[in-house]
């Protein structure tokens, strides 16, 4: 896998562009409401939330946001994949943090959780509040964000370690 850093950079730019496009297409929807909906947890909370969305006339915007979010996991998944490959490639082969296979599996799992979360959220909108779908969205969102946080933390630590190693080798 050559040019991992370049692929990571290009994918990061495309992913950030997609975020801007998604936000632009769903104005005036409050972007914080998407996170609230992902972690709604119960049918009762979902009913209150969906009624508020309906009163604001934002139900269609929320639905559009979820449909657009089916593309987003593919983009951030590829970005995290190449970012991890690039970061691990900067470490010595036997370094304890050089765990690309584990990181790539974590990214794939996070992307799958995001898809399942989106399906659960669409069910809540289209079929009405249900504890099963509200709970599923909550669990899948929690797993997704936990895995991505670990991958991002690994990326940052790995970049710092490799930068420090590079700096020490110049001295």
Give a written overview of the molecule.
- The protein is mostly helical and 171 residues long.
- The chain is built from 7 helices and no strands.
- The protein has helices at 4-25, 32-38, 43-56, 59-68, 72-89, 100-127, 131-170.
Short description:
This protein has 171 residues and is mainly α.
**Helicity, in percent?**
over 70%
**Backbone CA Rg:** 19 Å
Q: State the end-to-end CA separation.
A: 30 Å
Overall form = elongated
How many strands, what sense, and barrel or not for the largest sheet? none
Number of strands: 0
Distinct helical segment count: 7
Structural class: mainly alpha
The pLDDT mean sits at: 95
Helix-strand topology string: HHHHHHH
Strand content: under 5%
Q: Which regions are unreliable across 5 or more consecutive residues at pLDDT < 50?
A: none
């Amino acid at each position: 896998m050559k040019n991992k850093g370049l692929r990571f950079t290009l994918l990061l730019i495309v992913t950030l562009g997609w975020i801007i496009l998604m936000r632009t297409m769903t104005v005036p929807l409050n972007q914080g409401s998407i996170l609230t909906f992902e972690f709604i947890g119960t049918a009762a909370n979902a009913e209150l939330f969906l009624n508020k969305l309906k009163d604001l006339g934002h139900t269609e915007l929320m639905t559009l946001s979820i449909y657009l979010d089916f593309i987003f996991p593919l983009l951030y998944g590829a970005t995290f994949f190449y970012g991890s490959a690039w970061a691990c490639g900067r470490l010595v082969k036997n370094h304890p943090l050089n765990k690309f296979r584990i990181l790539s599996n974590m990214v794939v799992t996070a992307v799958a959780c995001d898809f399942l979360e989106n399906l659960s959220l669409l069910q809540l909108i289209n079929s009405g509040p249900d504890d099963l779908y509200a709970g599923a969205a909550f669990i899948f969102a929690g797993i997704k964000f936990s895995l991505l946080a670990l991958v991002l933390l690994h990326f940052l630590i790995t970049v710092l370690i490799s930068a420090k190693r590079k700096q020490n080798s110049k001295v």
